[in-house]
Amino acid sequence: NFYNDKPPAANHVFSLTSGKDEIAAIAIKEEGSISKSELSLVHRDQEVHHTKRSSYGAPRLTQLCILLKRATICNIRDLKIAFLKLTSTCLVALLIGAVYYNFGQDGSKLPSNFSCLFFIVMFHFYAVSLVNILLYPLEVSVIVREHFNNWYALSMYYLAKMLADLPYLILSPLLFVTISYYLTDQPREWDRYSLFLLANVVVTILAQGVGCFFGVASNTQVGLFLMTTCTMPMFLMSGFFIHLDDLSPYVKWLSYISIFRYALEASSYAIFGFGREPLECPEISCPYNDPQKFLTDMGLDASTYWRNISVLCFYIVLTQIAVFVALKRRISKSKER
């Protein structure tokens, strides 16, 4: 037997290492010296004890389920803010429908319809990103306190937060696109509607990540300033205000990192692309009653819908990683204080 072969001092030490470290030290001092091998066993047992104490109280899957449930309950209880968000979404969609009423099938108003698509993309991005910049910093103090208490892994919290916000990020563009799509008389084709909706859902999810990043990386005031400053060049290089072929070579590269360019191209291709037939022309002359000609003149004929969606999805992954790194860094700084 291992314990029977050891001297009383070693037996006493081994029996106490599962407790406090100070007790083990006292035992060694009182009972006399022990061998180096026995002391290494004591230290190894102490290290295992420290590891067990620092581990989380529940498996990661259990953490995820509990955090997801809590985040969902918080979203449900905060019905006032959710109601205001959805109400404002519907009101703006009705306004868009009134301004661009029946523009979708009118060949003489195709450029104006293009403006409608651009506004829808802008609304989804800024409506979601600005709200997250304002609200997300309020949660950081709670996250820091709970993480310091070793309640859960930070990765599980962030994953639960993303999943809990996903229903709103889908419902909001669903309401907006459905209302505006019908009132503006866009083509009554299920495929086009689905592709247009998908493009706006992707933009909304991307906007949530961008807003969270600037909200976590800095305070609210600085975050608002940095977000608008960083997105304005992308906004300008979207291809809506200026033809991309007319850009100077010194700034043209900015168009390739513009999230608004890929969002606008995906939305435009969903409505005007895929071999859409020429539109009816109620006027004497309609330069752009042919959607394919309009896409060519706007420099969008070479783009494809799924390529643009893929780039936007890549940006989503990139921003989510950036948010997690920024959140982890902020918590690390709080530990140092």
Automatic annotation (TrEMBL):
Chain ranges passing through the membrane: 82-103, 115-138, 158-183, 195-216, 222-241, 305-327
A GO MF term: ABC-type transporter activity
Signal peptide positions on this chain: none
ABC-2 type transporter transmembrane domain mapped to chain residues: 62-272
Keyword vocabulary terms for this entry: Membrane, Transmembrane, Transmembrane helix, Transport
InterPro entries cross-referenced by the UniProt entry: ABC2_TM (IPR013525), ABCG_transporters (IPR050352)
Metal-binding listed as a keyword: no
Domain of life of the native organism: Eukaryota
UniProt main location, coarse: membrane
Protein localization: Membrane
One annotated Gene Ontology cellular component of this protein: plasma membrane
Membrane topology: Multi-pass membrane protein
Keyword presence, Transmembrane: yes
Entries under PANTHER family matching the protein: ABC TRANSPORTER G FAMILY MEMBER 28 (PTHR48041), ATP-BINDING CASSETTE TRANSPORTER (ABC TRANSPORTER) FAMILY G MEMBER 16 (PTHR48041:SF118)
Name by which UniProt lists this protein: ABC-2 type transporter transmembrane domain-containing protein
